């Protein structure tokens, strides 16, 4: 079952524009986390890949990295890793992944994924954040906003679908740290 929530309008928080999509996933937070950590590289972005390729081509035309970098590991992301034209800025397993855009944009952009336990499943939250530079930055955000509704909405649904196929992995047993004998 997939239920999608969206804010109809982007939020403006002291100059930071934000657009969030959430999807309820019948999977554990770890499964959802592992699914969104697979984005990029050979896997692609799961939705509208041809548009991501066009964006990567345009980025290379103006001196950005484009999609040529791929990623180091197909399953895991680590702080500082390059993922196409993004850089891993924050990773907190199994709940948060924040990517900072290294593509050419008139401002600073981030793409964040969060896995929040909810009931028997997980709420996947995908947030696009943008700190525009001047009027050109505001124009860019609002010009791209309609495309982002489709791209990021479908991406959230695709990540949710991928999460349901991830194997359930039990957390490793914790080692005893006391000197007391086991019973």
- Report Rg: 18 Å
Examine the coordinates and then state which fold CATH places here, giving the name of the CATH topology. Answer: Alpha-D-Glucose-1,6-Bisphosphate, Chain A, domain 4
Mean pLDDT across all amino acids? 83
The top level CATH class name: Alpha Beta
- For the record, the CATH architecture stands as 2-Layer Sandwich
Domain count: the total is: 1
What is the CATH H-level superfamily? START domain
Mass-distribution shape: globular
Low-confidence stretches are 1-12, 170-183
For the termini, the CA-CA separation is: 43 Å
Share in helix: 25-40%
Task: Please outline the major beta sheet.
Answer: 8 strands, antiparallel
Beta-strand content = 25-35%
Structural summary, described in words:
This protein is an alpha+beta fold and 183 residues long. The chain has a single domain (3-164), classed as 2-Layer Sandwich (Alpha-D-Glucose-1,6-Bisphosphate, Chain A, domain 4). It is 29% helix and 31% strand. It is built from three helices and eight strands; from the N terminus they run E-E-E-H-H-E-E-E-E-E-H. Strands 1, 2, 3, 4, 5, 6, 7 and 8 form an eight-stranded antiparallel β-sheet that branches. Strand 2 (11-13) and strand 3 (16-25) form a beta hairpin. Helix 1 (29-36) crosses helix 3. It is globular and about 45 Å long. Mean pLDDT is 83; it is low at 1-12 and 170-183.
